[in-house]
Amino acid sequence: MKVLMVGKTGQLARFIQITQPDIELVCLGREQLDLSKPEHISDKLGSYSFDLLLNAAAYTAVDKAESESGLAHAVNADSPGEMAKVCAARGVPMIHYSTDYVFSGNASSPYVELDATGPNSVYGSSKLEGEQVVRKAHSKHFIFRTAWVYGEFGQNFFVTMRRLAAERDSLSIVSDQIGGPTYARAIANCSWQVIEKIRNDAEQPWGTYHLSCGGEVSWFEFAKALLSSSGYSDVKLVPLSTAEYPTPAKRPAYSVLDNSALNKNLGIRMPDWAQALETCIGYADAGASIDTK
Ligand SMILES: NC(=O)c1ccc[n+]([C@@H]2O[C@H](COP(=O)([O-])OP(=O)(O)OC[C@H]3O[C@@H](n4cnc5c(N)ncnc54)[C@H](OP(=O)(O)O)[C@@H]3O)[C@@H](O)[C@H]2O)c1
Q1: How much is the pTM?
Q2: Residue % of the chain over a pLDDT of 90
Q3: What are the chain's domains?
Q4: To test the ligand 1 pocket, which listed residue (62, 149, 160, 185) has its Cβ within 8 A of the most ligand atoms?
């Protein structure tokens, strides 16, 4: 089986590469496939042979998207739609990722896949449109909605918090947004498990699934656990409200994803956020090397 991954340099793309099992993987970076030009996707993909397409690329600058709506929609919706058409024409499956930001965040219990969407931001609506066009173009798809993605490298909350903790005596962290922080390595491992399943059986319970670490926590409590397990218990953490930390894009206040369908239909269990966090700290402290192909 040959997997073609769109995306090479992003945090999830890098974890997909370092967790690669004995399955062929070819990665396309921006220089090979520019997702801001959906009109070129079909021609460009035409020159590659593959048995499964995995799209790990996206426009993820949530605040900047508010002023770059056209670009966000081209990368997050129009181009994935074109990829799905190519996959449908070839009869090969597609794996695509989406986000908790497709929801409004007004709920008070974890979102299931069929709950009503209602994004608050350009990024969220571009990702929602991406889901819709992929679903419409190709039935053999998995769309995995994930959330609050972090890892021991790349640009993310985990890396930023540990860097700032080494530099400062106190940090202010938003305490009224609740979610499910998800370790990119766990998403990558789950993705490979799904690919193995597809390799072994072409019939799969295709569709949209929530793929996040279990449990729920605020950014503040997550930072507290992260810094205390990283040896920075002496850094003072100050809770901040969303109102005190205004951003161009509105974030969902509560965006916990119920991932039980992933377990029920695909037999895959994601770790709880606290367990995944400890694993990530272990890799970070061991100075895990990055082997990006
Ligand atoms: N990060 C999160 O907290 C989060 C939360 C929920 C869902 N997700 C979803 O998870 C998936 C993976 O996200 P991530 O965190 O790995 O994102 P990321 O680290 O920001 O990486 C984005 C990737 O997309 C590529 N890309 C952006 N614009 C492109 C373009 N015009 N043409 C080609 N490539 C382009 C980037 O390439 P360059 O390096 O060349 O820019 C990069 O490889 C995405 O679908 C995202 O929406 C992420």
Answers
A1: 0.96
A2: 96
A3: 2-285 (3.40.50.720)
A4: 149
